[in-house]
Amino acid sequence: MDPQKNAQAPDGRRAVPPRTPRRVKPQSIDGRIVDPIKLSALLEQKFGKGAYEVEMRHNRFLVRARSELTDDEIRQSYY
């Protein structure tokens, strides 16, 4: 059984993790200059665990989240 599925918010309601809509157009980021560990940490800090999706295709990170990363935020993820 998934422990998060039955987690409750402080007011007694069931806590539901935020989800990213699949229809959100992904932000494309050049994978040759971005450190995936730094990118992952940045996404988790900005959006929270499970509130974004990332996939790698053709040497580009495709990020789906409720908003796009700024150029300055992406630069923080460079090698």
Strand % is 15-25%
Q: Low-confidence stretches at least 5 residues in length (pLDDT < 50)?
A: none
Which secondary-structure class do the elements indicate? alpha+beta
> In angstroms, what is the radius of gyration?
15 Å
Portion in helices: 10-25%
Spatial gap, N to C terminus:
39 Å
Q: Estimate the mean pLDDT confidence.
A: 84
SS field, number of helical segments: 2
Shape: globular
Helix and strand succession?
Answer: EHEEH
Q: Largest sheet, if any?
A: 3 strands, antiparallel
**How are the strands of the biggest sheet laid out side by side?**
1-3-2
Total beta strands: 3
Region (Disordered): 1-27
Keywords:
22% helix; alpha+beta; globular; 79 residues; three-stranded antiparallel sheet; 2 helices
Explain what this protein looks like in three dimensions.
The structure is a single chain. A three-stranded antiparallel β-sheet has the order 1-3-2, with no helix packed on it. Strand 2 (53-57) and strand 3 (60-64) form a beta hairpin. The protein has helices spanning 36-47, 71-75; strands at residues 27-30, 53-57, 60-64. The chain is of the alpha+beta class and 79 residues long. It is built from two helices and three strands, in the order βαββα. It has a domain at 27-75. The mean pLDDT is 84. The longest helix has 12 residues, at 36-47.
